[in-house]
Amino acid sequence: GSALGYTWSMPIEDKYMKSKDEFINDIAELLACRVSEKIIFNEITTGASNDLERATKIARDMVQVYGMSDVIGPIVVGQREEMIFLGKELSEHKNYSEKIITEVDSEIEKIILTGEKKAFTILTKNKSKLIKLAEILIKKETLDREEIEKII
Predict the structure, then answer these.
(1) Strands 79-83 and 88-93, bridge-based pairing
(2) Nearest-CA neighbor of 27 among 5, 47, 4, 51?
(3) Fewest Cβ atoms nearer than 10 Å: which of 35, 84, 95, 134?
(4) Over the stretch 88-116, which tens digit does the pLDDT of each residue have?
(5) What is the pTM of this model?
(6) Among the residues of the chain, which ranges form H helices?
(7) How far apart are CA 147 and CA 81, in angstroms?
């Protein structure tokens, strides 16, 4: 389709809490396509834009909402006003200084780069499997979990 690719993973179990490591793994998973382009073609395309957006949101929430930054600490940065019954975020009230937001941006970048490095390490180590998977995807376009597990 017009999306050119989409990363969608079903949870193995229903979970209501996630650890920092689990979020980093999610980010690595989202960045894997972009990293694959770097490894195979030594360049990147616009194909991973939605994955980048989703990974950045996870990293931002880790820092601003869940207090998962050693630098920022256990505080919420920005108060969100939501219409719960609509499931939409209306606005964010600024309750932080420019110094804090600079640190937030730095922490988000650090988290994203950690996820990217993790994806790079895994994909480089398994480059032959990556190539095999890509060849099958060119022919078939869509694979489910069982098919991917059989390949890797």
Answers:
(1) antiparallel
(2) 51
(3) 84
(4) 555 555 667 788 889 999 999 999 999 99
(5) 0.80
(6) 20-41, 49-64, 98-125, 127-140, 145-151
(7) 43
